[in-house]
Structure formats: structure tokens, C-alpha cells
Automatic annotation (TrEMBL):
It is found in: Cell membrane. It comes from Candidatus Dormiibacter inghamiae. This is ABC transporter permease. The keyword Transmembrane applies. It is a multi-pass membrane protein.
């Protein structure tokens, strides 16, 4: 029937059609392709694991994933900044090891938890700045420079630890950084302090990258170093600062490791962090050539890696198979990164 009401309904059909709220529309408009791909991959992984074990969705397990990825997440945030600037830092795992031992040694001489935290952060910052100086003053390629310091810093960590053995920690306030939880009740396992620390650091760095001149300069020097130099950006100073931040965050990761295992570990707990961090950053969509990426996408990739590891543990998959999976993930991440870098270079060539 084509009466007036029917025609009116047709005429007004467009205005009556359900609309997506503006806030939701703005949120999805800001989700880049890489982040959306990671969200889909994470959802599929969760479905696959949950279909095999009913332990996955237990609150304690979900919060344990957050606690377990906190160390990798802190290192990956620092690595994100370095890669955005068009460089690379392979020494972050070794820096975390040195910071872990240094924090433990400091706690043997003070009863203040802050003393251990300050010592770990300062050594991480100092070693990060040292990386920056090697890259800028000596003009050594970042990969070669940080590969060399990776070995040197690892050696220093073992020299600091008597006999290369773990340095014990008993300060309860410090230990809470790694294993403490808030809102812990009989029915709720509590939110890990280390997870809250990661969230705070990641949010602060994301805001810095998006809304400060320093953050925009990082994107600029990674995207087009020549143009950044012409714009008045001191590339050498920026590189030193960036490596310093990366080192400090690696030091913070080492502090969390020390607090979690109640000992300063020269290698165990920090070994392999550099490869895992680079994997996460590249999976998050960062370009190896720099100028593209975000902390949010990196955190999604870290969560993906952590969920995969948790799922394999729940399913009783042997450790060496997990190592194979991590290796394949790294190869995939590097291949994706190389493809994106080549695509970006072709785009620059066409526009230039």
C-alpha cells in the first residue's frame, strides 16, 4: 500500500535509519589498519585457545597475562621510540640485565625501595645515552653499535653479579613492584602493580609522541631525516635522548624482573627481550625505516605475543615448540616490516 504514511516513511527513511554515534565513529576512524588486524588476530587466537581449555577466561589467568607481558611491554615501548626515529636498539635485554643486578646491589646498601629503583633507572639511562653517543659521535651504524654494546653490557652484568650468580633481594616494598596486586580479595585476584606500571608508561609515551614537539620530531626524523634537519631539528641530540629513554625503560623492565624473582639476574629473565621487543614493534605496524608506528599498536602486539605464550603453556606445549613459534613470529614480523619499508620507499620515490 502506497498511502501518504508509506510514502512519508520512504521519504524519511534516510533520516530514520540508525546512525553510528559520533563518538564510536571517531574511535573507529582513528584505528589504523595494522591495529585493526592485530585486534582481529588477537580475537581469533583467544577463540582458538578458549575452545581447547576452560582455564583461559579465569580472572587470575587473564590478569597473569597482563603481569607476564609487563617486562616485554616496557622494553617494547622504548624500542618503539627508537624504531620510529629510524634506528634500532639490540642492547635493551642486556641493559635490563645490568639494571636488574644494579638494583639488587643497591638494595643491599639501603632499606629504601626507591634506592633500588633509582639505581636501576640511572644505570639504564646511562647505558642508553652511551648507545646514543656511540651512534652519533663515533658514527657507527645503530645495528652494529647496539650489537656491540649488547655483548659488552651483558658482560658487565655478569661482572657485577658475584660469580655471575643472582643477587638476592628481600625488600618487601621493592618486591611488590613485581608481584604486588591492588584490589586483591577472596573473589578477585587483584590487578598486578607491574601491569598498571606498563599502562601508565605506555599512555605517557603515546601522549608524548602525539602531542609534543619532541614526539613530532621523532616521527619527522624517522620519516625524512633531511627535511627534519632543515626544519632545525638536531638529529644527534634527538638520537642521544631517544636512546636514553629506551635505556631507562629497559632499566625499568630490569627492576620489574628483579622484584618478580626477588633477585638481580644478569641474564635469566632478560635474555631474548630485544628480539621479542623488536618482534612486537614490527608486528604493531612500525616501519623499519622509521616515521611510522604507535605505542598503542605495539601494546596490542605485545598482548598478542603474551596471549600466544599463555595459551601454549595452558595447553602443555613443550618449551622448544614455543621457541619455534617465537622464531616464526619474528621472521613474520621482519618480513612484514621489510614489505612496509619497501612500500613506503616506493611512495616517497613517486611523490619526490
Amino acid at each position: 500500500m502506497n498511502g501518504p504514511e508509506s510514502r512519508g516513511a520512504k521519504a524519511g527513511g534516510r533520516s530514520r535509519r540508525p546512525e553510528i554515534p559520533g563518538t564510536v565513529r571517531r574511535v573507529f576512524s582513528r584505528v589504523d589498519t595494522e591495529s585493526l588486524s592485530l585486534i582481529i588476530a588477537l580475537a581469533l587466537l583467544v577463540i582458538a585457545i578458549a575452545s581447547q581449555t576452560d582455564k583461559f577466561f579465569l580472572p587470575r589467568n587473564l590478569l597473569n597475562i597482563g603481569q607476564n607481558v609487563s617486562v616485554l611491554g616496557l622494553v617494547a615501548v622504548g624500542e618503539t621510540i627508537v624504531i620510529l626515529a629510524g634506528a634500532l636498539d639490540i642492547s635493551v635485554g642486556s641493559i635490563a640485565g645490568v639494571a636488574s643486578v644494579t638494583a639488587a646491589i643497591a638494595l643491599q646498601h639501603t632499606s629504601l625501595a626507591g634506592g633500588g629503583v633509582a639505581a636501576g633507572l640511572m644505570i639504564g639511562l646511562a647505558f642508553g645515552v652511551a648507545n646514543g653517543l656511540v651512534v652519533t659521535v663515533l658514527r657507527v651504524n645503530p645495528v652494529i653499535a647496539t650489537l656491540a654494546t649488547f655483548a659488552a653490557f651483558r658482560g658487565i652484568a655478569f661482572l657485577l653479579a658475584p660469580g655471575g650468580k643472582p643477587v638476592g633481594v628481600s625488600n618487601e616494598g621493592f618486591i611488590n613492584i613485581g608481584v604486588g596486586r591492588i584490589f586483591d580479595t577472596d573473589t578477585f585476584p587483584g590487578i598486578p602493580v607491574s601491569l598498571l606500571l606498563l599502562i601508565g608508561v605506555a599512555a605517557a609515551v603515546e601522549v608524548m609522541l602525539r602531542y609534543t614537539d619532541f614526539g613530532r620530531s621523532i616521527y619527522a626524523m624517522g620519516g625524512n631525516p633531511a627535511a627534519a634537519r632543515l626544519a632545525g631539528i638536531s638529529l644527534n641530540r634527538m638520537r642521544i635522548a631517544i636512546y636514553g629513554i629506551s635505556g631507562a625503560l629497559a632499566g625499568l623492565a630490569g627492576i620489574v624482573v628483579t622484584a618478580r624473582v626477588t633477585a638481580g639476574e644478569p641474564a635469566s629473565g632478560t635474555q631474548g627481550l630485544e628480539l621479542q621487543a623488536i618482534t612486537a614493534v614490527l608486528l604493531g605496524g612500525a616501519a623499519l625505516t622509521g616515521g611510522k608506528g604507535s605505542v598503542i599498536a605495539t601494546m596490542l602486539a605485545v598482548l598478542l605475543v603474551g596471549t600466544l605464550t599463555d595459551g601454549m603453556n595452558l595447553l602443555g606445549i613443550q618449551t622448544f615448540y614455543q621457541d619455534v613459534a617465537q622464531g616464526l613470529l619474528l621472521i613474520t614480523a621482519v618480513a612484514i616490516g621489510q614489505y612496509r619499508a619497501a612500500r613506503a620507499e616506493r611512495a616517497r620515490t613517486r611523490t619526490g
